[in-house]
Specification:
Elements lengths: L1 E8 L3 H12 L3 E5 L3 H20 L5 H9 L1 E3 L9 E6 L5 H12 L7 E4 L6 H5 L8 E6 L8 E5 L8 H9 L5 E5 L7 H4 L1 H12 L4 H10 L6 H8 L1 H14 L10 H9 L23 H21 L5 H12 L5 H8 L1 H14 L18
Parallel strand pairs: 1-2, 1-4, 2-3, 4-5, 5-6, 7-8
Antiparallel strand pairs: 6-7
Bound molecules: nicotinamide-adenine-dinucleotide.
Nicotinamide-adenine-dinucleotide binds next to helix 1 and helix 4.
Length: 374
């Protein structure tokens, strides 16, 4: 095994970014994709991404050439024998990912590590059927991988004890913030982010305007309001993530799929990519008179979701706060919101919301045991 070699399988949006991340950190990268055009264009796409960094003065021409020289496109996972870590970023499909790992484990060394960039598939299920399930982890990069500081590191119940320290050591030169995550649906960020959108959508269905809510959150220090964030990512992508989590969590009302989101996705006004979204291309405007109440309601549900996740184990308050700040660009994490608003106020707000909840949302606001004083 060559400790300076990394394998990347799947060279789409995430894969090519992950190639850039490891090659920029000095690793030799062996890259592959099942589609010939993706392989053929990989070097060109990487060169274009590096050229824009050179143009912006963030990278020298010499470094750019050196990074490109470290990347070699190869003919499939079978050519990845030397790698210390092989990370897949192929389509979100369990059998496809399993087939890749079983091809990889036939060629890589016994002390090499397998990793998945999945956003939503359970790592434990991916490990089932492997000869050495203990060396598989989740390494969840965020989009765009070169720019986003956060990587969620997901162990499953049978991850071998030597694996996590070895992953951390391999990731050190990469300079990302690695946060330990439980192997639970949505890991940390994609799960704890749900109320940021969901509670805003609940307010929208109660008759508030998207622009007013975004303005309220901006006034409280958020860089983007919930609707501008949906517009950035795309209502279709947000809907798919919400539906996925709703299914994975057995349809619990904390993961309710709001009709307003379905309608937005169905309308085709998906956000920036279609030129029109909930708010885009307009600006949010000035905050409404009850901006503080809107912020309290959204932050109460963010803190509650984080406290429910914390109770499930495998993470910490600090881990959740850091992941949410880096992954969602929030000015403060859910537990920092709890601290700033005060636990009593948050519990009172949750009780008020639960009391007023329509039948289909009943149970959505029940406080996590962690929040309630013994
Ligand atoms: N796009 C995001 O914002 C994002 C963020 C975090 C994680 N992810 C996860 O990363 C993974 C990839 O997502 P993406 O957005 O880059 O997808 P993408 O569609 O842009 O790219 C997927 C690539 O995988 C290739 N591929 C498909 N089957 C293959 C196989 N059997 N062997 C080799 N290559 C194969 C495809 O040809 C394609 O180039 C998914 O698991 C996704 O959930 C995506």
């Amino acid at each position: 095994m060559d400790p300076t070699a990394i394998g990347v399988i799947g060279l789409g949006t995430m894969g090519i970014g992950i190639v850039q991340v490891f090659a920029s950190a000095g690793y030799q990268v062996l890259a592959t994709d099942s589609q010939a055009p993706a392989c053929a264009s990989a070097n060109h796409r990487l060169a274009a991404a590096l050229a824009s960094r050179v143009q912006a003065g963030k990278l020298t021409e010499t470094d750019s050439i050196a990074i490109l020289s470290r990347v070699r496109v190869v003919d499939g996972p079978a050519r990845m024998a030397p790698v210390a870590l092989a990370i897949e970023a192929v389509v979100e499909d369990l059998p496809v990912k399993r087939a890749i790992f079983s091809a990889l484990e036939r060629v890589i060394a016994p002390d090499s590590i397998l990793a998945s960039n999945t956003s939503s598939l359970p790592i434990a299920q991916m490990a089932e059927g492997l000869a050495c399930p203990g060396r598989l982890v989740g390494l969840h990069f965020f989009n765009p991988a070169p720019a986003m500081k956060l990587v969620e590191l997901v162990a499953h119940a049978d991850t071998a004890p030597w694996v996590l320290p070895q992953v951390r050591a391999l990731m050190k030169p990469v300079g990302k913030t690695l946060i330990d995550c439980p192997d639970r649906p949505g890991f940390i960020v994609n799960r704890c982010a749900r109320p940021f959108y969901g509670e805003a959508l609940a307010l929208l269905e109660e008759g508030r305007s998207a622009a007013a809510m975004d303005a309220a959150m901006l006034a409280a220090g958020y860089r983007l309001g919930p609707f501008s964030l949906i517009d950035l990512v795309g209502a279709d992508i947000n809907l798919a993530a919400t539906e996925g989590l709703n299914r994975a969590m057995g349809g619990h009302p904390r993961y309710h799929v709001f009709a307003a989101l379905r309608a937005q996705a169905a309308s085709g006004n998906l956000g920036r990519k279609t030129g029109k979204g909930f708010v885009f291309p307009d600006q949010p405007g000035s905050p409404p008179g009850d901006a503080d109440a809107i912020v309290l309601r959204i932050e109460a549900t963010l803190a509650n979701e984080a406290a429910w996740l914390l109770a499930e184990g495998g993470t910490t308050r600090e881990g959740i706060d850091t992941a949410m700040k880096l992954g969602l660009n929030l000015p403060r994490g859910p537990f920092e919101c709890l601290e700033a608003q005060g636990t009593d106020r948050i519990i009172a707000e949750l009780a008020r919301l639960e009391g007023a909840a329509p039948a289909h949302l009943r149970g959505r606001y029940l406080p996590a045991p962690e929040l309630v004083p013994a």
